[in-house]
Amino acid sequence: MKPGKKISWKKLMGFVGFNIVFAALLAPFIVFYGPFQALKVMAVGSIALSRHPQVVRAFLSPAEISKITHEYDALGVNTQAKIVSKQMTAGSGSGIQIQNIQGQSFRGKVILIKDPKRVKVAVTNRLGTAGEVLTHLVQQSGAVAGINAGGFNGPGWGGNGGFPEGLTVHAGKLVYNDIGNKKAQDLIGINDQGKLVIAPMSADELAAHHIQEAVTFYGPVLVANGKPVVAGDGGIGIGPRTGIGQTADGTIIFVVIDGRQPTWSWGATGRQLMNVFLQYHAVNAVNLDGGSSSEMVYQGKIINRLWDIFGERYIPTAFVVMPK
Predict the structure, then answer these.
(1) Domain spans in the chain, listed from the N-terminal domain onward
(2) What are the DSSP calls for 146-199, one per residue?
(3) Which residues pair with 99 in a beta bridge?
(4) 294 by DSSP, 3-state: which?
(5) DSSP letter (8 states) at residue 312
(6) What does R_g of the chain's alpha carbons equal in angstroms?
(7) What is the Cα 11 distance to its own chain's centre?
(8) Taking a C-beta distance cutoff of 8 angstroms, is the pair 103, 86 a contact?
(9) In the chain, at which end, N or C, are there fewer CB atoms within 10 A of the end residue's CB?
(10) How far apart are CA 199 and CA 232, in angstroms?
(11) pLDDT confidence band for 73 (50 / 70 / 90)
């Protein structure tokens, strides 16, 4: 540069802007077609099952997406989780224990509830119209903790959280049914004895099973009668996860795993989530709604790290823990 020559800020900003745009356009080709297999598997597994799967579908065929999302286990990633905190963060005598868990590619939270009858289903007050955020569902039900629960439908890919899938039961009453006389194939319920029940069930069969609280979940079933159920990586890709399970002594297990945050937590596969429940000696466990819905609240505060930059997602149902 010649002495006294001024820098053209317009040219400089134009150069920086060009490089940002160029990098943004080039990034998908590096991720989806580049030599970095681990990055490809992580990215495809995270995005393909998010609210924006069209990003992946624009570059890869359904067959390629399926192949890549089932290659996770072949990468040699440790699917076991480490319990990194065992302190009674919920307070002595509360009947609730909160623990941190960590795997090679994920971090998450676990709540253990000793008395299973304290666990209820909270339902949006605008059922059939719109959902509510988890913090509101926990607060309005008078609960001390909660996680997102059942799957839901609605306008657009994300939905507005007002339309639960299948059957929804609260306090022994069927409060929502969008399948008529058909069976809800993926029903998770709690009966009057506090037992977690996983079984296909129609609305007419709920009373015979003494179901008090229930939602329809997305699947898969993770643990059934003490045995692992997931084959391969679970077929649900890598992402934020929420699950519920129960041990032989009746303790209910809530699990929420953060995801889609490369510097914090990529997320978990179905197999990894299953292994978390097995480490807690669950005899039954299922995968609930995940992705942007995955959230855990305790004493009015969100205690996991949400992925969605817009904050809490509107959902129709939650599993909540009532006070002792």
Answers:
(1) 9-69, 82-321
(2) EEE-S-EE-STTT--S-EESSEEEETTEEEEESSTTS-BSSEEEEETTS-EEE-
(3) 110
(4) coil
(5) S
(6) 22
(7) 46
(8) no
(9) N
(10) 22
(11) very low
Q: Which residue has the tokens 């001390």?
A: 144
What's the rounded Cα separation, in Å, for the pair 52 and 307?
13
**CA distances to 103, 180, 273 from 106, in Å:** 5, 39, 10
Query: Are residues 182 and 134 in contact, defined by beta-carbon separation less than 8 angstroms?
Result: no
In terms of phi and psi (left: phi > 0; alpha: psi -120 to 50; beta: otherwise), the region of 156 is: left
Residue 271's CB: how many other CB atoms inside 10 A?
A: 20
Contact 288, 148 (CB under 8 A): yes
Give the angle subtended at the CA of 306 by the CAs of 301 and 310, to the nearest 5°: 100
Which residue has tokens 């229930």?
A: 214
Residues 148-192: tens digit of each pLDDT: 999 998 655 456 889 999 999 999 999 999 999 999 999 999 999
Grouping H, G, I as helix, E, B as strand and the rest as coil, residue 206 is: coil
Q: Note if the pTM is more than 0.85.
A: no
pLDDT on residue 268: 92
Contact 282, 198 (CB under 8 A): no
Q: Which residues pair with 22 in a beta bridge?
A: none
Q: Which amino acid is at 262?
A: P
For the purposes of burial, counting CB atoms within 10 Å of the CB of 80, is it exposed (0-12), middle (13-18) or buried (19 or more)?
exposed
Helix (H, G, I), strand (E, B) or coil at 131: coil
Predicted pLDDT of residue 76: 39
- In the numeric block, the tokens 């510097």 are attached to 263
Cis ω before 28 (30° cut-off from 0): no
Are 127 and 137 spatial neighbours (Cβ–Cβ below 8 Å)?
no
Residue pair 42/75 in contact (Cβ under 8 Å)? The answer is no
